[in-house]
Amino acid sequence: MFKKILVANRGEIALRVMRTCREMGISTVAVYSDADRTAPHVLFADEAFGIGPAPSNQSYLMQDKLLEVLKISGADAVHPGYGFLSENTEFASRVTATGATFIGPPANAITLMGDKTAARQQMIKAGVPVVPGTEEPIMDVLAARSIAEKIGFPVLVKAAGGGGGKGMRLVHHAGEFEHTVAQAQREATSAFGDGRVYIEKYLEEPHHIEFQILADTHGNIIHLNERECSIQRRYQKVVEESPSPFMTPDLRAKMGSAAAEAARSCGYTSAGTVEFLVDKYRHFYFLEMNTRLQVEHPVTEMVTQIDLVAEQIKIADGQPLTLSQKDVKSTGHAIECRIYAEDARQDFMPSTGTIKALIIPNGFGTRFDGAIRHGSEVTPFYDPMLGKLVTWGKDRKSALDRMHRALSEFLIAGIETSIGFCDAVIQHPQFRNGPYDTHFYQTYQADLLGKLNEITPEAGLAAGLTAAAHQFQPGSNGKIHANGENKQVSSWVQIRRREQLQ
Amino acid sequence: MKFLAKIQDQEIRFELGTGNGSLKASGEHFEGSLDLQRIYPDGVYSLILNHRSHIITVRNNDELNVQVDGVTTPVTLLDEMALQLEAMGWENVNEKRVGHIIAQIPGLVTHIFKSVGDAVTEGDPLLIMEAMKMENELKAPTSGILQALHIKTGETVDKGQLILEIV
User: Fold this and answer.
1) Calpha distance A362→A237 (Å, rounded)
2) Counting Cβ atoms within 10 Å, is residue A34 exposed (0-12), middle (13-18) or buried (19+)?
3) Do B128 and B154 contact (CB within 8 A), yes or no?
4) Is B106 found in the same domain as B125?
5) Quick one: three-class SS letters along A277-321?
6) Nearest CB to B44 within list A356, A474, A500
7) Nearest CA to A200 among A147, A163, A129?
8) Buried-state track A143-170, b at ≥16 Cβ within 10 A, e below 16
């Protein structure tokens, strides 16, 4: 077993990995940028090394510096966390070349799954369903139309040169195909200077559902069931849960074995995630494979009672899995809310500043994986995710009730956070009823954002009284003294003359 | 001290005072003592109001923002001075007559920043008027062209007098 692990990451994931290391009796090495000298992962670690200025391309992404720390510290393995260099083949290879172990899949599996076209080809070969469509941009409109007819309308026309919905068109029937393709091509040309488009089956009411897999170096592969990740905003997940309210035992068995097959086909080892889209008819299609630990992995840990980081470490050490597929039992229900430093009311704009007060929820079935403390500076240099709040309950209702309770308990003062937005999602009747699809946020945006501004008369009174007391505090003589400027929203601004105040 | 707090569509008038070492509040809709304790140095409070417990954070950057039990809302706070001005009719300047600026109290024009024909952007300082021993800066409530200026520096204006017009 490893004696010392270098965690080549920061924030909550660095801390989360180190926690398991310590439980396993493995010593930990942290790296930090100038902005992170007093960050929680540095305070927790046994050893810590500064690796450069705040911008990540001068610190956390500097392979040479990380390899130097690896050498100086004498660590015998590197855990990359997620993001940064976790899916960088070169880094994985360079770590391995030093004689240390890279805790993750083999470099060739990372390369294969990192290339969308190659991954798609590989899945087709392995018999894993992919979203039907033309793999290459359309050259001949009539040939493309006959492919569309074979796939079945509606189909989506998508730009090859870029995303963000530009050059994207829905085609409902064959009659409008040529006209719509031409429209999409024109739009793609003006948006990306590249008019190439391809077609893909349009999935109705799509769900984003992913499967956690574990593969050892002895050829054993198991899956740890699904996570439902359809609640997204700005193409980023916000709320995840397991099991999925949309899942059936039959579909789970099919998707689980497809996920295991996807991993097997590329010689995968370690923990990994196979992402699928599932339409309203419960047809599922491979989306991509993430060759690393996932942000939302605690959801799986809570229901399966399996520490995924410990499994990654044991697999990297060459140990065989101690579980077979039939040993995997999911108990109860788990849900995760990502706590971002952002303002939902301003289009989820990241919020920076100092955390001036912090109360982290606790209690039965409540877990917070974060890396913040009172006084933490939230800087613009890194991802605005502060941590993940996860609750477990014996069933979905109790997990949601517990999440609502935990969110109400959570206080992060000084910056805007997604706490209120997450609660609006958790409390939304459509979400509570489940199942919901990836259109949830778009469909209920007005409800969700409206709720963020709701203030009861009692809360309003409390706000007014406290604001007044804060601005004009009582002094020792019992009088109210001004403490801070009284801001008025008015076109008339008073300029008090100094001499007149004296 | 008397206050008017505007929170979304609520308007609360109340008076804050102290007695027996604790804060007291009274107003139209309530009467009672409030137990307000600071729990962190930077504007984070525990408020027990009529035996109901709230956690409140007050942030005063460009504007006053108050978070009550997780919901953030802007608060407009008018103190005694501002209330007096309001009582004399200084309020609602920009709401009632957007481009037509009428003197709400008598005063002395001490400085004019713009000339007729100038383009003005909402928020631009237009003039300074001295009244109630204070200098009051009048900012443009709307953007447009300064079409007419009915006063000169050094002149006094009467309440209700049309000062200038922005079109």
Assistant:
1) 23
2) middle
3) no
4) yes
5) EECCCCCEEEEEEECCCCCCHHHHHHHHCCCHHHHHHHHHCCCCC
6) A356
7) A147
8) ebbebbeebebebbbbbebeeeeebbbe
- Contact check, Cβ <8 Å, B78/A488: yes
Contact residues, chain B, for A479 at CB < 8 Å: 18
- Please state the length of chain A: 502
pLDDT digits (tens, 9 = 90+) for B13-51: 888 877 666 677 777 766 677 788 888 888 899 999 888
**Is A420–B70 a contact, with Cβ atoms under 8 angstroms apart?**
yes
Look at A420 and B71 and tell me if their CB atoms are within 8 Å.
yes
Q: How far apart are CA A160 and CA A199, in angstroms?
A: 10
Domains of chain A: 4-103 (3.40.50.20), 132-201 (3.30.1490.20), 207-453 (3.30.470.20)
Residue A170's SS3 state is: strand
Q: Nearest residue of B to residue A478 by CA position?
A: B18
Amino acid at site A299: V
- Position of tokens 């200098």? B135
Q: Which of A377, A492, A498 to mutate to test the interface with B (most CBs of B within 10 A)?
A: A492
- Could you tell me whether strands B31-40 and B44-49 are parallel, antiparallel, or unpaired per DSSP bridges? antiparallel
Report which of A422, A347, A348, A350 is spatially closest to residue A384, judged by C-alpha positions: A350
Give dist(CA B167, CA B163) in Å, integer.
14
- Tokens coding A53: 């200025």
- For residue range A325-382, what is the model confidence (pLDDT) as tens digits? 999 999 999 999 999 999 898 888 888 889 999 999 999 999 999 999 999 999 888 9
Closest CA to A302 of A406, A225, A405, A370: A225
Question: What Å distances lie between residue A230 and A274, A277, A281, A306, A391, CA to CA?
Answer: 15, 9, 16, 24, 18
Give the Cα separation of A308 and A244 in Å (integer): 20
Contact A497 B135 (CB under 8 A): yes
Amino acid identity of A269? T
Whether residue B90 is found in the same domain as residue B109: no
One-letter amino acid at A467 equals A
- Domain harbouring B91, CATH code: 3.30.700.30
Mean pLDDT of the A478-496 span: 34
- Residue B150, min C-alpha distance to chain A (Å): 19
Contact A213, A268 (CB under 8 A): yes
Structural domain boundaries, residue B65: 2-95
Contact B73 A413 (CB under 8 A): no
Q: Does residue B88 share a domain with residue B131?
A: no
CA separation (Å) from B141 to A153, B7, B97, B148, B159? 55, 22, 9, 15, 19
pTM of the model: 0.81
- Active site annotation includes A292: yes
């801070």: which residue's tokens?
A484
Q: Which structure tokens are listed for A381?
A: 């240099």
Interface mutation vs chain A, best among B2, B9, B12, B105, most A CBs within 10 Å: B12
